[in-house]
Design brief:
Length: 239
Amino acid sequence: MRKLFILILLIPVLGIGQTKNVVNSTRVFPKADKVSEFEKALTAHAQKYHTGDWKWQVFEIQTGPDAGGYQLTEGPLSWESFNDRGNLGKAHTDDWNKNVSIYLSDRNQQSYGIYVDSLSTVALTNYTDKIILNHMYPKPGMINGAVDLVKKMKKVWTDGNENVAVYVASVSGDPQIITVTRLKDGLKELADGYRKPMPERYNVAYGAGAWDGYLADYAKSIDRRWNELLFRRNDLGSK
C-alpha cells in the first residue's frame, strides 16, 4: 500500500486533501550586477506581502546548475490553501513587477513538492540553515523501484543520525524524488570522519555486499540525478 501511495503522489492528477504537506518553490536569478539591489527589494517585498501562512523562506543556491539563484519557498500548506489563495492583488503584483523583477534575468522556475513522512527521518518543519538537495529522476515504469531505494536508505540515515526530508514533485515537470539533507551541524557534516562512508554504513545495515546490490538496483531504476547546496538567508525572508 505504501508503494501505491507514493505512486499516486507522482501522478499529476492528485486528490484533494487538507493535509499541510505541500510546499511551493520559486527560483529566481538576479542579474550579476544587481544582486544587492535585488536582495534589498526582495526583503521589502517579502516582509510586506508574504506573511502568515504565505511567509517566505529564502535560500541562496550555492552550487550546481542553479548556483547564483535564490529559492523562495512557501508552505507547508494544503492543496486547498493553494487552490483558494486567489489573486494576490494589484498592489502585490505592481510591487513585484516594478521593484523586484527589474533586477532579475528572464530565467525562473516554479515547482510543487509533497513531503512524505513515511520516508523521512526529520519532521517537516524541523529546518536548518544549510541543506543539500538531491534530485532523483526514476526511469519510466520504475517508480516503485525508486521508492524502494529511498525506503532502504531511510534505515541508514536513521542509524547515522541524518536529518533527511523526502519530497515528491507534483505537477512540476518530470517525476522526481527530492531528498533534502538538513545539516544540523552545518558543513562539518561533510568532513571526512564525521560519519563512516556510506557503503560501509549500508553494509552494516543490510549485510556484507549489500551496497553492490543497491548500486545495481539504482542503475535499473534511476535515469539521472544531481544535487546542490543551499544556504537559508534569514535576513531576506519574511519575519
